[in-house]
Amino acid sequence: MHSQSVSEITLAYIGGGSLNWAQVLMADLVHDRTVAGEIRLFDLNLEAAQRNAAIGNRLSEAHGLSIRYTASETIASALTGVDFVVVSILPGSFDDMAKDLELPEAEGIIQAVGDTVGPGGLVRAMRAIPAMAEIAEAIRKYAPKAYVCNLTNPMSVLTGALYAAFPDIRAWGECHEVTKLRHIIAWLANRAEGAIRYGFRDVQVNVLGINHFTWVDRAFVGGRDWLPDYLNFAAENRENGWRAKPLDPNDEFQRYFEDINRVKFDLASRFGIAAAAGDRHLAEFLPASWYLNRASEWGFGLTPVDWRRRDQAKRREDARLAETGNEVPPLRTVSEEALVGQIRALTRGETLVVNANMPNIGQMQGFAPGTVVETNVLFSGHGVRPIHAGRLPAAVEALVKPHAERQNTVLQAVLAGDGATLEGLFLSDPLVAPLGQDRAAKLFRAMVAATAARLPEKLRRLSA
After folding, report:
1. Residue ranges covered by each domain of the chain
2. Where, by residue number, does Mn(2+) bind (predicted)?
3. pTM to 2 decimals?
4. CA–CA gap between residue 27 and residue 23 (Å, rounded)
């Protein structure tokens, strides 16, 4: 049972008008009940931040919390003197994201998500890195001692951008994708027990890789390592996939965001190590002929921007009612996000071990220092410290390492305004290279032109 003592914090939420993640944090704080203080919401859309502040305050009042939500008009007023910063921004707009998917698709390049690697991931990084560097500079100026959690994709390069702009920043990138594997391990352990004894939080996994291309070589729960059992289970279900509960064909969210673990099981069977992220993310790091070109056969969806728009419109209407309605805003169920647990650990002297993205200082062998890698990280009263994870098997490292090196170069090139390097990276991307040089170069210029208004002047010229 949690202690009833309460930690008083001040937290700045950059992107505080969010219709999803900001409200997830509000609900998780209500469920946790051990955090008090002020949450400052900053957003380029001030009205959206003000709406969320009203919703947050109504929730706090209804549930007896002493958390105050305010909307900040400037990033300076949001950040000054805070203990924590959360960064959750949309790099560009859904129209930009649509172009990230549609222009490559017209050339035969399929992307399931398009926010991390591939042509969509690279162009999104071009939009987002300059903005993240500006945020880091503001943190350096107004909150240099704050702990900073980045929730924004592309996770690796944007977490790297924070450190590139402010090397002494105390930041990590937070992603929930590894949770998918932990759920399966807990299910296996419960099946063996004949009763539900474990949840995913009881499962401790050793994580290696980069964001959305993560792997696990140990998985402990109930006092033993379940990885051998998982590998056997993956081999048994390699052909048809598996879910603890079948996908609901009428549920659009499940259709576009969930999967039957068939990619994970296939990779586990090939390489003898568990691939951890969701199938739609894993597939984008690999040749299109492996999975992407046969996504429906492999049991994962391609997330359309049109669905995101419809979902955003629904969330906006729900938020309007939550802000102005007579009833208490509905409380979301507790999420599977780690952020509140991380805040608890850092402020209360508790310890939490969970996967996070941080620059490599030796926690992962085989990757250059400074490369943003995803491993386990210890959160405690002593701060945020990556845990030694070891090394990927050689065959898997040969798949992961080139992406990590590309991400390092993308970050450096965007910050330097080095268009020639960015075009070369685009042309050599594993999903783009089959087009050939001329078609790939034409696609690159078209994608830059489509998002030019979001780019710094040096990069905007690449569309010429």
Report:
1. 179-303
2. 175, 212
3. 0.95
4. 6
Beta bridge partners of 205: 219
Rounded Cα gap, residues 160 and 135, in angstroms:
13
| 1 pLDDT higher than 50 | no
pLDDT tens, residue by residue, 352-405: 999 999 999 999 999 999 999 999 999 999 999 999 999 999 999 999 999 999
**List of residues 6+ apart from 215 with CB closer than 8 A:** 207, 208, 209, 273, 274, 275, 276, 392, 396, 400
Per-residue model confidence (pLDDT) at position 19? 85
- Give the closest residue to 67 by CA, choosing from 27, 21, 15: 27
Closest-CA residue to 197 (of 218, 222, 223, 219): 222
> What mean pLDDT value characterizes the chain?
94
> What span, in angstroms and rounded, lies between the C-alpha atoms of 427 and 436?
8
* Amino acid code (one letter) for 445: R
Binding-site residues for Mn(2+)? 175, 212
User: What is each CA distance from 458 to 137, 411, 413, 426, in whole angstroms?
Assistant: 20, 15, 11, 17
